[in-house]
Fold each of these.
Amino acid sequence: MYWNKPIEMMEIDRLKALQLERLQTTARMAYQNVSVYRERMQKDGVDPDDINSLDDIRRLPFTEKNDLRDHYPFGLFAAPQSEIVRIHASSGTTGKPIVAGYTQKDVRIWSEIVARSLGCAHVTRDDTVQVAYGYGLFTGGLGLHYGVERMGGKVVPVSSGNTRRQLTLMEDLGTTAIACTPSYALMIGETLRREGFDLSRLKLKTGIFGAEPWTEGMRRKIEELLNIKALDIYGLTEIIGPGVAMECLESQNGLHVWEDHFFVEILNPETQEPVPDGEYGELCISTISKEGMPLIRYRTHDLTAFIPEPCVCGRTHRRIKRFRGRTDDMLTIRGVNVFPTQVESAITGIKGVAPRYMLIVDRVSDTDVLEVQVELAPDFISDEVRVIEEFHAKILKTIEQVLGVSIKLKLMEPGSIERSEGKSRRVIDNRHLFE
Amino acid sequence: MFVKQISVFLENRPGRLEELTTLFGKSGVDLIALSIADTSDFGILRGIADDSEKAYRIAKENGYNVGLISVIAVVTPDEPDGLARVLRILKDGEISIEYLYSLVRRVGNEAVIILRVNKPDDAVAVLIANGIKLLDDNSIK
């Protein structure tokens, strides 16, 4: 199943030529319209006209998540505000979120790549797709929603949560595909089995799962519990949202990056030099057709590798392997990206706590549970439980507001959080999400 | 007319209380009254030592979150209505109790109750006015 066969099966040389042309346009647009890019290029002594081959992209400066924070909210927008029709947001590395702006064309491109991704999952106009990603500033819900509509399928915008209702709708509406986080898919599957729900009453056949890392083991479990094919979709708010890359049903091995819209590099995280095909490195993405907020050489910190072999599905767009981890300490908690440094900025300035903390993540009944341990300042004490509990509640609320996810907070005695040489270890992830 | 009480924040984990009491034992600090308030996440040890200031110093030096405050030590006859009489006096004086606990040992045939109230000075005044015997840091040892 192909949504846009001529593009998806485009001859590699033509695809590369298209990429170069679009990269040149993007570099020029960024130089002209975004002062941050212009100043960096000038500082590096590079001009957009110096881009004469795809390899020349390496002359362009990198973009980091912190750039989005430093120029919050609109500093990296290339289109005039009057052209922006949509804003989405995601976690920054500190208290502030990062935002992305879309023009009408950007929304169309996004819908197009999600439609193609649905095609990879063999979803057609005859399908009913239940979108159980959260709707709102998070890109999951609206991203999938627009893609399904663009493709001509029927979308059920149920959003996340209320698992019992999800099941009822699935049965009553004859849902054939579901889009959500893999951990939520597991939870739906477990609920279904626990409640003795008759699987034959469902028409579900496919799942499109993303927004958090997952393993082959989880895939097998989801496929077994729901009796479906489970496929991985990748994307990030900064770049556009879900649909940057998608697994195809034919191979279920690696994700096709829609290379007519994104130019991807896989680089050695230390040297920033390209790694040979097949070797793992950090994924770096340049948007080459976006207008609202084009990003040049955006460092995703996701670790993956190119799969050099052509895919059995016939798509020419290169595949990247299932992600192996991160080069930083970002966590994904129930689909929300969390950085330990966000905790730090949340607790800084609260009298009574020390700037020492630890994040411990577990998966309990298929739900991510984040425990944040915070050390008390040595002089904090009360003989009254009520006072400490109020203090606890205040810190909990402050951290939750910054992270955007609910947490368990544990106040610790001074000195009880492990100290190590140099950079302290701030995360213990017991979920084992990477293979 | 107060006695000094230490309060120590303790994480809820096995052995934590033992560590603290062992530390006091080694340092020659005798706990003569003790109460622990706990939630699922943490506990607060409140106690009176034969030398609470020393207990405070030792806990502090060993990295505990410890506080030192004044509470009231009330001597009540160890018989029915002994405690209730004290509580009635406080109620009549519109003083509310944050918490109370009793001394590990008796003094003669009287019991000693440690009280933390919202208006300590008023409490002391009404208790003395009603003939209730109170202890201070020296007489409690």
Note: Chain A has a mean pLDDT of 94.
Amino acid sequence: MMETLIAFVTALVILAGAGFALVAAIGLNRLPDVYTRMHAASKAGTVGSGLLLLAVGLHAGDLPTFARALAGFFFFVLTAPVSAHLLAMAAHKVGYPLSTQSVRDEMKGRE
Amino acid sequence: MTTFLLSLVFAFVWVAITGSATLHNLIFGFALSTLSLWIVRGEVGTRGYWRRLGRILSLLALFLKELALSAWKVAVLVMRPRMDLKPGIFAFPLTVDRDFEITLLANLITLTPGTLSVDVSEDRKTLFVHAIDCSDIEATKRDIANGFERKIMEAFR
């Protein structure tokens, strides 16, 4: 009974994680410029891979693996925003334009 | 005393992560965490540790909630057939002034709904934030200032 329940939860978490990863990929394709794309990559991507790692930990069913999966998620959360931030900053520095839908740019000329 | 307890906690984390629950490994983990804590002894104020721990945990809970919400919002936005965006970069005046607080705030902002930190001004008084929906900047600024920024101040001052 317990094993079935864990298997069921694991399957659900894997599906959710894969779903978020897919959404991140679709977002990268559909959003108009590099800045908005970073939103999709950093958020949906982090949550997607985090859920997949969590599923690995749950499936293994022992504490060391679970702790390592959690540590992996933790490092993802630490590093994903830094890379998104660096990419966005570099893009702005070399003058990559915001999409034409953009309504404001208060950073212009203030770096 | 607090340092000793912290070392012990870290030692158990070490045992859990390395995955071998032997006495040798526990002692090794303890030595390692004592050494690491000694290296950062100047940065970690040990006074008021437990009260602070509660606030850090509350910050963590808020963050996990916002992260889930933000991934969901991006998902909904991306799957909508007509994407109605009003993206833009706005300047957020910083109240926190220490480097690691700014870093933490920038990271938290990046992982929360609709906002992405782009750069910090030279004088460290302004954070430039890219928002996917710039229709109500003042509300976004208020949310950040009353949410994460206040919690960071409570946890680390």
Note: Residues 18 and 104 of chain A are 34 Å apart (CA to CA).
Amino acid sequence: MALFQLSRRDALILALFALVVVTMPVWTAPFGANYPGLMQKFAIYAIFAIGFNILFGLTGYLSFGHAAFLGVGSYTAVWSFKLLTMDALPALLLAVLVSGLFALVIGFLSLRRSGIYFSILTLAFAQMSYNLAYSVLTPITNGETSLQLTMQDPRVIDLAFSERGVGLPTASLFGVTLSGLSGFYFCAVVLLIAFFFAQKVFASPFGMMLRGIKSNQMRMSYTGFNTRPYALTAFVISGMYAGLAGALLAVTDPLAGAERMQWTASGEVVLMTILGGVGTLIGPVMGAWLIKYFENIFSSFNEGILSRFFDFVPEPLHDTVVAISSKFVGEGWQLTLGLLFVFVVVFLPGGIMEGVRRIGALFRRRGSPPKADAMRVQPAE
Amino acid sequence: MTNSHNFSRRGVLKGGLAGILATGVAPLMFTRGAYAQEFCNAPSGDSVTLGFNMPLTGAYADEGADQQRAYELAVEHLNGGGDGGLIPTFSSKTLKGSGILGKKVAFVTGDDQTKADAGRDSARRMIERDGAVMITGGSSSAVAIAEQGLCQEMGVIYMAGLTHSNDTTGKDKKKYGFRHFFNAYQSGIALGPVLGEAYGKDRVAYHLTADYTWGWTQEESMIKATEALGWKTMPPVRTPVGAGDFSQYITPFLNSGADVLVLNHYGFDGVNSITQAVQFGLRDRQANGKNVEIVLPLVSDLMAKGAGEAIKGVYGTANWDWQLTDEASKAFTKSFGAKYGQPPSQIAQTSYVQVLLYADAVERAGTFYPPEVIKALEGYEFDGLGNGPTLYRAADHQCFKDVYVVKGKDAPSNPYDLLEVVGTASRDSVTYDPAIFGGELGPDTPAKC
Amino acid sequence: MDAILAQLLNGLDKGGAYALIALGLTLVFGTLGVVNFAHGALFMLGAFCAVSFRYLITLETVTVDPTQTTAWGTALEVRTPLAQTWFGDWGAVLIDWSVPLSILLAIPVMLLVGIVMERGLIKHFYKRPHAEQILVTFGLAIVLQEIVKAIFGPNPISQAMPSALRGATDVGALIGLAPGALTYPLWRLIYFLFSAGVIAAVFAFLRFTTFGMVVRAGMADRETVGLLGINIDRRFTIMFGLAAVVAGLAGVMYTPLLPPNYHQGMDFLVLSFVVVVVGGMGSLPGAVAAGFLLGILQSFASMNQIKSIIPGIDQIIIYLTAVVILLVRPRGLFGRRGMMEN
């Protein structure tokens, strides 16, 4: 089955990655991050970032509107819960399908332009979706109030087989409730599948073609290739990833709000991908984890924790150190994130992964020179 | 968070960031889940954690900041600090300043960003990570409804803060959700007659409405109340929350033929829209031979402060006002003012009272077990918390009490004297049949989270 | 008819803000070729210049008035601004006019901010791809807004306009309509006139000064100008400063209309990019025209008559225009061929 074969190196990476993901509840414990809500987000946003990277990392097209697909995925999934069944699989399938169609339309239009014009087009489409979801599409999206399950939902498939229970149902997979840890493991499995598929894309001739678009679109078209169908395919795939992530958000918490379509949410996935390392497989995952960790844990540090942390600083300086550092944690976590991001873009364009490689190269010294340049962002312009 | 865990200085130095995380946060993770729980976040040990979730950023951030002050004050009083605030005046005498059921009260706070998604996320974090046994907060009905739904699923009691939409205890009511604040329907009943007296029976109203559950229900309630007087209504205009500049929505009012502008906006949105409306000279205009008037059906001290001159002479309704003269209101204003140097807003009062009511219900139930606490709150009749005799109605978990009609003061005697109470709608007059809004409370089955 | 005129005026004052921001953005793009996602943050910094100026002149002394007590039993504090203690009535006038006066603070501060930004960070990105420019300036925008948040807090801080300029004026009477038929807030009219003035000044500066001529030459052909022995880089740095000043001034004068908060820059950023793209990347007249055009479109789209035909149009008109222009006429209204297309 060639379809499921990976190169030895990729298979090893997949195995290691699977190990890391499955043992997440263990290794996140020392960081205070081993609660289901956050681990689910780790898995979900990793999928989002991997998908985004298939577009940006391979083709160099910088989309500033990917959150729209995430939102569409969420809405579709919640509607699937409301109308059909609480089972997660139909919700995921429908969400991927609908967000794929949505991406096809937006991608078809946006890919008529490249460079910054492409970015602005995606941004404009996403903002339009957000504003519409917020206002006139209220019958579908429930606007600012967010789309939620209600006791009166038809859920035709579920109710054909069983009585309506008391209280709101939760999402399930073949009858197994997906909340808490089981919800996380479900997301983790989906993440591994998504990762495997991304590996296949990266290694395929199609992936090579996309890299060709990134390095020199002009040359590609001179050789007689029409690059647009390839770029569009990449766009749709990455939109489907976003839809998948959105659907998983709805599975773990059946609520869909318009805010997750706002352009700042699109900006977040850009940050994740760049921080981790554009064009690499692991990088976006690392970026997603880092940002979600910042958002959830780093942001809850307060002066009390800092004060204990800086216990070793002598008394006269102690308060000053705490006062200054408190600006960077807690509510100031985004300042730290912004600084880190600027630092990465300026000095480490390959993100964390390039940092890892450079450190690795230091240890190897006489090994092969690092191929940092291959990882540089080279957008299609 | 209280945390009695000890660790050596050397350990911190050695472990760096990971060290601080392990010692600072991790013990909670291990203690939680280590025991079989019969319900979500059953308090073990000698403290109990409450989750305070309010908007610290976004359109209602001012309200959120005051909410946080009130919550911290309530915790102080529950733990026996300060002057005890409303505990001495409260009709129920179970609270002794020794925490709740003898457990010291600890708390965690979160920012809901005035967004349903973010608020729900933050509430979930408090339940899953911090082990909060009760969540309270929300300065937006959208947030409150989203959080209330989550709390129902997770089996954690939700004491709603400032949420004024009819839906919170109407079509979206939940067994685990309780609201002390009044609602838009009650605002309409209270405000209608006052408006009729002040502005006459022959008026044309023009509504600008925040485009979400609260705005919709307030618009509906206000239209109902004013049309009963004989007013006409222009097609309402919906505006996005946090729009900032409302001028393009105000300009069409000028030549619309309407003579009353009703602003169904709250927080900074309300401040911006009323200030901008006054900049447009609406106050000095005439339409249909009458002076143009502005109405802000839900108004708070914080908004009055933000709007400054613009609020003068504007009618609205309030759940409570610090200038009320009953003993409880005076006691709360004194306690709050002494700590923060400013009077409490209505949101501070409702938030503070909600924490006390929860604590008292737990004491009366004798357990934190949510179904028992729910039973203790349902149909509970109390007094001495600033709103006069109040009932927590069992059918929809809505509090029934007097509603105050307020007006922006023309000549304030000091910087805090911004609103004056000009009328009171009695509890009986604002009581309605719970069936009119539909909805189901759902079951009280506790969940294991 | 009056309704349409009122809506047109509203579009003009909105458009004034859009045009000013887009003008600065285009100056940077046209001269330096840099796509600056931090430009919205410059607008926000300008607004906070007004806030800081007000803080400075309202530093106050607190005295206690023992005759009045608060509801919580302490004596009422009376705050008197130092400016008032020192200058008497003039101090009060100073405070009353603080927003227009803070322009005096904003000009040097924004010039400095612009120059530091260009020399410190942006100049390293001239040779890098546009995507990286977007990313680094996006990061910078986050840093700037978080710094402002750390200093001034997350809540908007309202700035009063001078009392003489409050309220509305009867514009209709000026153009021969019935009294009261068309009134409009005075400050919004001033904002429109102010933006028109700044725009005219920038164009005159580029058109009639030697400096401006060199810059325009540099925009057309940077290399040749460099070969002529002119230090074009230094002039471009100053242009960046100028762009920051233009954005900052737009921010200062906007404060009485909308209390500034830390994320105001991000709110305006998307919009200003749309304006620039609609006008045509790198075209100064295009930016100005598109600014006013979009302001007017947005204002008209908010009318109930229009919304009843196309529901929700007020929410998306800006983006819809951008999409249509980009797809039909990718150079925008006034753009040159080939700009950023490859």
Note: The two ends of chain C are 46 Å apart (CA to CA).
